[in-house]
Design goal:
With 253 residues, the chain is an alpha+beta fold. The protein is built from six helices and eleven strands. Strands 1, 2, 3, 7, 8, 9, 10 and 11 form an eight-stranded antiparallel sheet that branches. A three-stranded antiparallel sheet has the order 4-5-6, with no helix packed on it. The two termini are 23 Å apart. 34% of the residues are buried.
Length: 253
């Protein structure tokens, strides 16, 4: 018997996992971020933004691995935003200029006109991911609570941004069949809903994986820290390419 492991299946027409989003420019990484997965589980559990449990419980209590089942493609959308928009120096933009006036006073001022900007937004089209979550031991029973919350979420679940709705149930499996994250990502059956309409030879030969490791050679700045500036901490990860495991249909015979 191995360690408890919770699997999530993330598929949808669009996903967005920002890594370096700054103000009106919103990017997406090529695989889910830990901050994004913590936010997803926070929605399921009913933890509001700014709730310390996002950091002290979910981020600290879970270790995470990702396998890219289908990479999808990056697309860019351009959205128009009209409002009194905050600036990096703590002021607000209106009528094309910055002002030190408070937001409340701006909204009460009939002479102040909201600014309009074009916001580039990146998304992943038709991507599919397997996310494996293990416990660090800080919060016993955390995976079971997360699994129950995914079945009956407190708030709607989305894949990075609210416009990105899932195309299949996010909960995959809660199991003790694997030794650790690397074992789970290596042996868990391959699954992508889009493959049902494609021939068998479209199953990829290799898959890319990323998992948390204390001795990981790479740093990712997507560990959740609850603070006013919404800055994130670093965590160590490792990357590898593995042979694609059998599909669920092949495993079931």
């Amino acid at each position: 018997m191995g360690r408890p492991m919770l699997f999530l299946r993330l598929e949808g027409p669009l996903q967005a996992w920002g890594t370096r989003s700054r103000w009106d420019v919103r990017d997406t990484g090529l695989e889910p971020t830990k901050s994004g997965i913590v936010g997803l589980l926070g929605c399921a559990l009913g933890y509001a933004r700014g709730d310390l449990r996002l950091e002290k419980e979910l981020d600290a209590g879970l270790c995470m691995g990702v396998r890219i089942e289908h990479p999808g493609t990056v697309m860019e959308d351009f959205q128009t935003i009209t409002d009194f928009l905050p600036t990096a120096d703590g002021r607000y933009k209106h009528s094309g200029v910055k002002t030190a006036t408070s937001l409340t006073k701006l909204r009460e001022n009939s002479d102040a006109t909201p600014a309009t900007i074009i916001s580039p937004r990146q998304y992943l089209e038709d991507a599919a991911f397997l996310v494996a979550l293990g416990e660090t031991g800080i919060v016993p029973g955390l995976l079971a609570r997360c699994a129950a919350a995914l079945h009956t979420p407190r708030w709607p679940l989305f894949l990075g941004r609210k416009a990105c709705v899932p195309a299949r149930p996010i909960f995959g499996e809660l199991t003790e069949a694997y030794l650790d994250l690397l074992d789970a990502l290596t042996r868990c059956p391959w699954s992508w809903s889009g493959a049902r309409m494609l021939p068998r030879e479209t199953v990829p030969q290799y898959l890319d994986i990323c998992w948390e490791a204390d001795d990981g050679a790479y740093l990712r700045q997507d560990a959740v820290r609850v603070n006013a500036t919404r800055q994130y901490a670093f965590r160590r990860v490792q990357y590898a390419r593995i042979t694609c495991p059998p599909t669920m249909q092949e495993v079931q015979g």
